[in-house]
Amino acid sequence: MQYTTKDQVTALSGVFQAASLIDQIAVHGTAESEPLETIIQSLFITSPDTVVDVYGNYGKLSTGRQVIKDVFTHRNKPTSGRVAGYALGMTHLERRLARRPEVLGVISQRLERSKDQAEHFGATHEVVISSLASTYLDTMSSFKSRIQVTGDRRNLQVPANANKIRALIFAGIRSAILWRQTGGSRLHLLISRKRLLEGLNQM
């Protein structure tokens, strides 16, 4: 299948939206509800017809799009560096995961259970978030590479917040898989920023 730059930045917006929500929880103890639901729900969309179908529509990725613009245009916002670091960390974990088919198999099975829970309770219900967090811990926490989340310790020590962060890392990795499938790479982030920004403007 032929993918466009617009498809690439759609997936990349998913990565950055997850990263932005992680930062919101770590710093403020809460995150925007609609962007959170969009990203968590993306974990359960396994056979989309188009890239944007994973997220519902382009408007639901506005948080991720804005963060990419801030990072790519060097706007000096305090959050930009942290969020970019989380996003890059998730693309790195995705590459490690791609080399572990046995882990991917376990994740696929566990996601089916979480999907059933999401259909019953809703994608962001604490039962679903806890289930996703457990899957992340049982699979990807064994990887040597970790994402170090910084913020207010009081927020990070709340179990529900910790579960949301783990679930969001999981969802960000799902978007990173989609980013790679559409032809994206770390090199693109360094040398193709102008083209990616043009793709953002098409969304």
3D architecture notes:
The protein has 203 residues and is mainly alpha-helical. It is 71% helix and 0% strand. It has a single domain, classed as HflD-like (YcfC-like), CATH 1.10.3890.
Percentage of residues assigned to helices: over 70%
Query: How far is the N terminus from the C terminus?
Result: 20 Å
Helix segment tally:
10
- Poorly predicted regions: none
Strand content: under 5%
The structural class is mainly alpha
| The number of domains | 1
The CATH homologous superfamily is called HflD-like
Secondary structure blueprint with pairings:
Elements: H1 5-28, H2 33-42, H3 62-72, H4 78-98, H5 101-121, H6 126-139, H7 153-156, H8 159-181, H9 186-191, H10 193-202
Task: Give keywords.
mainly alpha, single chain, YcfC-like, globular, 203 residues
In short:
The protein is mostly helical and 203 residues long. It has helices at 5-28, 33-42, 62-72, 78-98, 101-121, 126-139, 153-156, 159-181, 186-191, 193-202. 42% of the residues are buried.
